[in-house]
Design brief:
The structure is a single chain. The protein has 236 residues and is of the alpha+beta class. The protein has one domain: Lambda Exonuclease, Chain A (Alpha-Beta Complex). Helices cover 45% and strands 14% of the residues. It has six helices and eight strands; from the N terminus they run βαααβββββααββα. β5 and β6 form a beta hairpin. The longest helix has 41 residues.
Length: 236
């Protein structure tokens, strides 16, 4: 499976995050919040991490059953609720500052690969630009401002958004109303990395997608084998 550089190839699923429809849309797909697990490492050299292995098995099972095994309770809590409440404020302030509108979308589902993304929006007045909004606590927001770069913990998510959509740039937006007015909104523009870095990133994802296909095949074959055994046992 190749992540080729071409026009974006995805369907937009109209759904609200953390609803049953949203969980169903994510089932079996490497999403922007999951993609970082592909880059985790095991405890020993060249050992696969448990997080990566568990994700591959979960996605294979979700594909074969058509059901999501995400736990909705893991998406709850005060920080999730904070994002739900404050993101509209962040979006409004961003739109006012740049004189643009953000077109919200539900879930982007790649039409040929098991990839997906819960993109925060497309910027209508700036060509080929997408957004990612965060509403962190003051200490985290201040760190973003001081470091003045895409936070390392979100680098893979950002690359995934850009790769899936085919957008040229992404505006990473951090909003914290607890900060002084001039510091409440921080925006950092970024693009896809070039050269070896992007080749490495694509390579890791492509290898995982091939491994995922093999996992699904093994799981399907074992299911058919055990089903056949059960049928023979029932006869006797």
């Amino acid at each position: 499976m190749k992540l080729v550089e071409r026009e974006p190839d995805y369907d937009v699923i109209d759904c609200v995050q953390r609803t049953p429809e949203w969980f169903a849309a994510r089932a079996g797909r490497v999403t922007s919040s999951r993609v970082k697990l592909l880059f985790t490492e095991g405890r020993k050299k060249d050992e696969e991490s448990k997080q990566k292995r568990d994700l591959r098995v979960q996605l294979a099972a979700e594909t074969l059953t058509g059901q999501s095994f995400d736990d909705p309770d893991e998406w709850k809590g005060k920080w999730a609720e904070r994002g739900k409440v404050l993101e509209p404020e962040a979006r409004a302030m961003y739109e006012a500052r740049f004189g643009v509108l953000v077109q919200q979308v539900g879930f982007l589902s790649h039409t040929t690969l098991p990839l997906g993304s819960s993109l925060d929006g497309f910027v209508t007045a700036i060509e080929d630009t997408v957004t990612e909004f965060k509403v962190p606590k003051p200490a985290t927001h201040w760190r973003y401002i001081q470091e003045d770069r895409i936070p390392p913990e979100y680098e893979h998510q950002v690359i995934h958004h850009l790769t899936l959509t085919g957008a040229r740039r992404l505006h990473f937006v951090s909003y914290c109303p607890a900060m002084p007015p001039a510091l409440r909104l921080w925006v950092k523009e970024t693009r896809l990395p070039e050269g070896e870095t992007m080749a490495w990133w694509r390579g890791v994802v492509e290898v995982f997608l091939r491994e995922l296909e093999l996992e699904k095949l093994r799981m399907q074959q074992k299911a058919e084998e055990m089903d056949a055994q059960s049928r023979r046992a029932a006869v006797y």
